[in-house]
Amino acid sequence: MQLEVSLGELAVRFGLKLQGEPGLKVNGVATLSHARAGTLSFLANSRYRRALESTHATAVLVSQADAALCPVAALIDANPYLAYSRIASLLHPPAAVPPGVHASAVVSAAARISPGVSIGPLCVIEEDAEIGERVRLGAGCIVHRGARIGADSLLTSRVTVYAGSSIGARCILHAGCVVGADGFGFAADQGTWVKVPQVGSVRIGDDVEIGANTTIDRGAIDDTVLEDGVKLDNQIQVGHNVIIGAHTAIAACTGISGSTTLGKRCMIGGMVGFAGHLTIADDVVVTGCSLVSASIHNAGSYSGGMPTVATRRWRRMVAQLRRLADKER
Amino acid sequence: MQLEVSLGELAVRFGLKLQGEPGLKVNGVATLSHARAGTLSFLANSRYRRALESTHATAVLVSQADAALCPVAALIDANPYLAYSRIASLLHPPAAVPPGVHASAVVSAAARISPGVSIGPLCVIEEDAEIGERVRLGAGCIVHRGARIGADSLLTSRVTVYAGSSIGARCILHAGCVVGADGFGFAADQGTWVKVPQVGSVRIGDDVEIGANTTIDRGAIDDTVLEDGVKLDNQIQVGHNVIIGAHTAIAACTGISGSTTLGKRCMIGGMVGFAGHLTIADDVVVTGCSLVSASIHNAGSYSGGMPTVATRRWRRMVAQLRRLADKER
Amino acid sequence: MQLEVSLGELAVRFGLKLQGEPGLKVNGVATLSHARAGTLSFLANSRYRRALESTHATAVLVSQADAALCPVAALIDANPYLAYSRIASLLHPPAAVPPGVHASAVVSAAARISPGVSIGPLCVIEEDAEIGERVRLGAGCIVHRGARIGADSLLTSRVTVYAGSSIGARCILHAGCVVGADGFGFAADQGTWVKVPQVGSVRIGDDVEIGANTTIDRGAIDDTVLEDGVKLDNQIQVGHNVIIGAHTAIAACTGISGSTTLGKRCMIGGMVGFAGHLTIADDVVVTGCSLVSASIHNAGSYSGGMPTVATRRWRRMVAQLRRLADKER
């Protein structure tokens, strides 16, 4: 059974201006080019407005500036993508998960399980772990002793949370992510390495999302911290004692070395590498594949790396650069 | 019990020219330098032909050009490495896995399990999942509701396939890979982020291999697509709505940002970063550690990045480049 | 119950010089800035000696040179960080794990389990696997047939060890790491790829640590080898037939392509990419985010990559470099 909502109802519920017939109904979302009758689409970037012309959507979310070009019904908002995100959540709700503990899950009698919790097949919850109200754990999640998962959080599948880590409310953690493994700490001893015990923990705020196979190390002594609203994509590495400021978003494959602090509301591209012990200001943007080897003290956009060209030309670039450096010695 | 095959039989079965005694037998493969009597080796690249001289292999797969130098029996083919791959598969068959469902697996009564399937210990198969004929799932695999695994595919161990994802026939997925987790989509709302539901799925063709801990995100609205014969190494990240053309091979640690399309038969090195919304032509080669920030419209070889030199020289290179840029402002 | 130890006892046990009252007691470690009474801190780098002034630690591990500045009791050693690592291990011992096999684990009757082993919930141990004395497997570990885990090793949680892999004594493997998945080997056949069976294995020495979600591929024919004392951080990729020399330490997200050999006692930064078939000498240091595309024959420090600057300046750098290369054609 699919939910069907009228444009009039959407306009009222989400405070949108409607251009067109309020009785028209939509039951799902679609891209402009693949939309069929009964779907709602959106135009977030005016650059792509030509795609409006040929759409078969029943209605499109647009800005006021683009509304005149819309050949079908339009729902108008200053931020069409934000309005889209909310309507899409309404039309495509997550599958309902009834509360309860699957018979195959291994739950310690000494764990604290709040009401309304759903624990999927083959999960492991160790002693003194604390699972907040309405938390949902998909299949195969492991919550080690003394870890805490805040209310309404979702561990989708096969998430590992190490002992003592703390995760806030309304967080989403995807498959394969690991919270609280040991940081990388060794003391040199005559050509060999002696392990430095990692006795800190991980503290994650509310409304944080963590992508698949991302790893967040526990602190060496103090804690590793992700503040509220941080969004991490897949395969990100967060070293011990890193602090990530509230509402910072980081794209996939980025690595942050130990003890680096990122400011609030930063936007970090994919495959960026941060050296350790840096301080990055609030509202910093770093483009993808940059090597950040020094602290950044001011908001703004930063970049590194040498973008791809034809291999022959690249060889000349590298050769010229080496020549230049060797000449000026 | 080890399989033993005569050179004569191999020559006939694989259409090879034999130089030497047809009755000689081999029972395994080896590198030229570590070969012992009874093994078959190969020389794929004439540059290394000196290694032929001292080999103890019983026979070597070589090209016609190198056959004269081979001091032992030679099996001759235009593509010795391809012939090697086929003979190695014959001599080292995968361990046979009897069909059946392990008692510890949690299989929904509403899953569709085809004949000849093998489901290992502690697997989870949710409702409406569809497991094709002769599929083998190693220990700890999770197939969420409505996902589909095509005939003769192998999920080696601890693979996660999210709801609704579709995987073709004869695919191989390695441990820790995650198919169909949410893409990274958020709408900005006054300094915070609102999750954009990821309602697309993942469609994977036939004969695809996916390495350990690789992640392939589901589409935001339309699907993420891997066409037939794509080969992905370990720890690759494939963003939402990426399309990878047939028979493209990608080395480890590469990341592909959302909505980028790669052509057919591309060869992508390790740790390459692709920006989002790019189009890469068919038959493109990108060397390792390149940052691809613009579309590539023609077949050919492309490179980026600044290769490693002594740290002192590197510092001069960086300084010179900055000087040059600042001077010309 | 927390262990409490007197400074006098620590001085005797670890061969340290004590400046202050031997009867003072400590029960845990802390950073200089967050220390409270009853804790022990350390100063490893004289650059940060100003932090001594305001510490509330009961005692601080320092070098002789910094001891005069220490306002509280001092434990003096030539290598304070090494002494710290040992005392921290004493004060923060890992949680004791009683031997035994959890009822939910699936252990083959044909596996060889030594005395004193602890096998956690939902582990899978296949036939002919060999688990050494006092090995501890946390929840959800999978040890495939014929794999070997040496005495006193710890697989913390959800580790996957493929068939036939061998791991030495006193190793630590973190969640999500995968040992022995297939290497990335395919032979070209008229625009498609034919899988080359990966018949080698993985051999890991003693005292090796492997981080979360790190992947170590089995060899194509010969084995992939990690020698004694190697330390690998999270999300590292080790390709087939790589050899890593004893006591080499590698930071997170680094990738090593197939058949490359790293020397002993190397220190490799994070997100470094090694091309295949290289030889790296002993005692080489490579700084983070470097692209190593050629062998390195001498000990020393090496670097690559173009560090991050303001995006506008970076655009000029890239443009200048391209101009220079095109001019000199």
Describe this structure as you would to a colleague:
Three copies of one chain form a homotrimer. In chain A, strands 8-11-14-17-20-25-28-31-34-37-39 form an eleven-stranded parallel sheet, with no helix packed on it. The first copy, chain A, has a ten-stranded parallel sheet with strand order 9-12-15-18-21-26-29-32-35-38, with no helix packed on it. Chain A is flat. Helix content of chain A is 12%, strand content 30%. Chain A is of the alpha/beta class and 329 residues long. Chain A is built from four helices and 40 strands. At the A-B interface, strand 4, helix 3, strand 40 and helix 4 of A face strand 22, strand 23, strand 37, strand 38 and helix 4 of B. Strand 40 (309-310) of chain A pairs antiparallel with strand 38 (300-303) of chain B.
How would the blueprint of this fold be written?
3 copies of one chain form a homotrimer.
Chain A: E1 5-6, H1 7-14, E2 17-19, E3 25-26, E4 28-29, E5 39-42, E6 59-62, H2 64-67, E7 73-76, H3 80-91, E8 100-101, E9 106-107, E10 112-113, E11 118-119, E12 124-125, E13 130-131, E14 136-137, E15 142-143, E16 148-149, E17 154-155, E18 160-161, E19 166-167, E20 172-173, E21 178-181, E22 186-189, E23 192-195, E24 202-204, E25 209-210, E26 215-217, E27 224-226, E28 231-232, E29 237-238, E30 243-244, E31 249-250, E32 255-256, E33 261-262, E34 267-268, E35 273-274, E36 279-280, E37 284-286, E38 291-292, E39 300-303, E40 309-310, H4 311-327
Parallel strand pairs in A: 4-5, 5-6, 6-7, 8-11, 9-12, 10-13, 11-14, 12-15, 13-16, 14-17, 15-18, 16-19, 17-20, 18-21, 19-24, 20-25, 21-26, 24-27, 25-28, 26-29, 27-30, 28-31, 29-32, 30-33, 31-34, 32-35, 33-36, 34-37, 35-38, 37-39
Antiparallel strand pairs in A: 1-3, 2-7, 22-23
